[in-house]
Design goal:
Cytochrome p450, three-stranded antiparallel sheet
């Protein structure tokens, strides 16, 4: 039995993720009726849809059995996959970052920067991040009680933090934001490179390749600079890093920069914007948080679960195996549906309610196992500091219009969150 064509088409549709309710309903139906089954949307190879929290974790903890790199690591059509392989000489990947790697490469490349992102090392950044957060909160206060929290604050604050860590000058931040939105918002006419709906696969892949090429031009120059003049920044670590006694290959180095410069801020931006949207729609939670700032870490975790900015990753089986009573054949593709895992009724009580006191909150928004998000501790730190600085000054909060989400089935979050507020 395969998943109905209607639901199969929904779970790959960027507009369904922008809708929110539509994708939630599709995943709810799958968890109830077909928690692990095959989908074959029009234009795609068939793939297994993994919707339950426990099954996602089972796949994520078996990295030798379920590979990232053998096939495309995000959903792609048959035609787009063919086009990418044509461009790359056979590889299904335009970039080769940690996301597209399996061991032994994944372990070796991850180790290169892992120390930078450990909690004990991030403590040294806390004072500077707090200074940056206060600057953005002052800007919010200066806007006179109305702003678009997504565009004016949430997109820019984590961007500034990550670019400072990476070593990108502030003057280049708008360029990095634009390229990130082109990369993750390729299906959204408001954000993609063409500024229009892309209906032709060849055009879509070509646009993505141009965005990747722009990143590579920028970071090639940065690499040359950091090799001549190393600094205390992440770019210097990547530029001068070695794996197995050799410098990083050009594609791997460029891909390392790209993932740090995009996923490093975009997921935190999405979560931050979604968190304020949730507080505006749940005034009881806002008041509870205002009354007890010790609840901020719980609010951060709930916002990560609530938004789940990374919607999926793909894996492929390296041999025949069994998962949740189903036989998965070698080479078959699996879609790990993180928003579904984070609304799993078997794990979360009242999963469709925003609850800052939810405990435990074992969401899978950062992934799980060896591929768990490298920057998760930095993201949590940025969000905690922002709320610690903003909440004591934010006296009232309400939506000043209808928020909207970007159209994307890979990384997706709020595009606009108009709010009205009073600050002191």
């Amino acid at each position: 039995m395969t998943i109905s064509q209607d639901i199969a088409n929904t779970i790959v549709d960027p507009k369904a993720y922008a809708d929110g309710d539509r994708i939630d309903e599709a995943f709810k139906a799958l968890r109830r009726d077909s928690p692990l089954d095959v989908a074959q949307p029009a234009g795609f190879d068939p793939f297994w849809v993994v919707t339950r929290h426990a099954d996602i974790q089972t796949v994520e903890r078996q990295n030798d059995l379920f590979h990232n790199g053998d096939r495309a690591s995000t959903l792609t059509t048959i035609e787009a996959d063919r086009k990418v392989r044509e461009m790359t000489g056979g590889s299904p990947h335009l970039v080769r970052s940690l996301v597209q790697m399996d061991n032994p490469d994944h372990f070796a490349y991850r180790k290169l920067t892992q120390g930078w992102f450990l909690p004990q090392n991030l403590r040294g950044l806390e004072g500077r991040i707090r200074e940056i957060a206060r600057g953005f909160i002052d800007k919010m206060a200066a806007k006179g009680g109305e702003c678009d929290f997504a565009r004016d604050i949430a997109f820019l604050y984590p961007l500034h933090v990550v670019m400072e860590v990476l070593g990108v000058p502030e003057t280049d931040e708008p360029r990095m934001l634009r390229l990130t939105q082109e990369l993750f918002g390729a299906a959204d006419p408001d954000l993609n490179r063409s500024g229009a709906a892309i209906v032709d696969v060849q055009q879509g892949v070509a646009e993505l390749q141009k965005t990747v090429a722009d990143f590579m031009v920028y970071f090639t120059e940065m690499t040359e600079d950091r090799r001549r003049n190393p600094r205390q920044d992440l770019a210097s670590v990547i530029a001068n890093g070695q794996v197995d006694g050799k410098p990083l290959g050009h594609l791997e180095a460029m891909s390392y920069y790209i993932i740090a410069a995009t996923a490093g801020h975009d997921t935190t931006s999405n979560t931050t914007a979604g968190a304020l949207w949730a507080l505006a729609e749940n005034p009881d939670q806002f008041q509870k948080l205002k009354a007890d700032l010790s609840l901020i870490p719980g609010h951060v975790e709930e916002s990560i679960r609530w938004v789940t900015p990374v919607k999926h990753f793909m894996r492929s089986a390296t041999e025949d195996t069994e998962l949740a009573g189903q036989t998965i054949k070698k080479g078959e593709w699996l879609m790990l549906c993180y928003p579904s895992g984070n609304r799993d009724e078997a794990v979360f009580d009242k999963p469709f309610s925003y609850d800052i006191t939810r405990s435990p909150n074992k969401h899978v928004a950062f992934g799980y196992g060896a591929h768990v998000c490298l920057g998760q501790h930095l993201g949590r730190l940025e969000m905690r500091i922002l709320w610690e600085e903003l909440l004591p000054r934010l006296e009232s909060l309400e939506l000043a219009g209808t928020p909207s989400r970007m159209q994307a089935n890979f990384v997706c979050g709020p595009k606009s969150v108009p709010i009205r507020y009073k600050m002191r």
